[in-house]
Amino acid sequence: MTxxxxxxxxxxxPADPTTRGIARDLYARVKDLPIISPHGHTDPEWWAxxxxxxxxxxxxxxxxHYVFRxxxxxxxxxxxxxxxxxxxxxxxxxxxxxxxxxxxxxTPSRMWLDWVFAETFGLDQLLSAETSDxxxxxxxxxxxxxxxxxxxxxxxxxxxxxxxxxxxxxxxxHHKAIRESGWAGRIITAYRPDPVVDPEFEGFLANLKVLSxxxxxxxxxxxxxxxxxxxxxxxxxxxxxxxxxxxxxxxxTADLSPAEAAALFGRVVSGAPTADDAELFRAQMLTEMAGMxxxxxxxxxxxxxxxxxxxxxxxxxxxxxxxxxxxxxxDFVQAxxxxxxxxxxxxxxxxxxFTLDESAYARELAPLAGxxxxxxxxxxxWFHDSPEGMRRFREMTTETAGFYNxxxxxxxxxxxLSIPARHDVARRVDCGFLARLVAEHRxxxxxxxxxxxxxxxxxxxxxxxx
Length: 466
Known about the structure:
The chain has 20 helices and 9 strands. α1 crosses α19 and α1 packs across α20. The protein starts with 16 loop residues before the first helix and ends with a helix. It is globular and about 70 Å long. The protein is of the alpha/beta class. It has 2 domains: 354 residues, Metal-dependent hydrolases (TIM Barrel); 93 residues, Orthogonal Bundle (uronate isomerase, domain 2, chain A). Strands 4-5-8-9 form a 4-stranded parallel β-sheet, covered by helices on one side. A 3-stranded parallel β-sheet has the order 1-2-3. Helices cover 50% and strands 6% of the residues.
């Protein structure tokens, strides 16, 4: 039996009628604001070529590890979903997804996907085994039209800017093509140096050879290696980058002497660094990158605390980013101190901190950001960019860090059409949070009206120097 697909206009607003009314009024102020998407992983080739998306599975299933990690947890094979399997029938992959759609009840993925199905494609019945083919055919046919090409969708959803994320080894040819096309949409890159900063990243030494070839520097010498980073950062900035992004296992930083750093680098490039050497090198490179950010003005994002590719067999078969990253406990107070001792009081430095360890919000992160001028808190991230996670973030950080030591919302997604859906959820949750403060007479209604515009738009634009 098919069920209707409906999006309630008051979804995510408080149940109390008075507070809900305040939230409605706040939401009306921001629901149509432009979208600032300053950190994400969408493919710049989409906007460089403006080629039509192929089919429903290619657009909505294959890029979204939130979706297939849930399916995998219930025994669905990734090969059958078409992940790294070009021979899979996309219609059959979609049928598998549709028949398991009930697994997403109560999850943010369900909210985002229902929004996309209803708002983007006009579907009015819930996705299920019975409606699978209708969904696949409707979406796939619409994707063939000009109105559903990447650039048209970018403009339809009033996206002001999207930042993608690329390795220093990327030639940024798609970003160059976007510029040369004359299209007015703003797609910028961000500098993600993990493949040439993490000695435990697969192919690390080979990556250093490529970096040497790209920059003309000897990246097997400490001085040449640092110069190569400066050159690539400058190139990324020329191509629009305003930020860097660092996905380290921990938040550890170090501040070694030049001689100690050079000796450590020598051990790292010897081909057999210890785990301790690898961790210390990552720690030193966060401090080195902070120094470079002070010089070139790129905002620094630190995303620590994920045990990447925890499922070894899945990693060996399908590669990175297949839904097997698991949060870990993360220390910030001691870990960041070497970097902060050196640079924490520099007015020109801007560092945005993220966490997967919610226990650190009130104990460590809010007090740190509430003191050091260089620190700001990124929004609830990854496993916590849910309504409950966003509310917990506000509840545990606002009393100490306030609102203005945070940076608004970023969607951090590979799934293009989830961008407007995610921003809508974030705006609704913040409207509900502010409405409660107004209803409890903790802030004035005009203050909430100012704040919701800042949280939805201004803070992200300002923090990422956009």
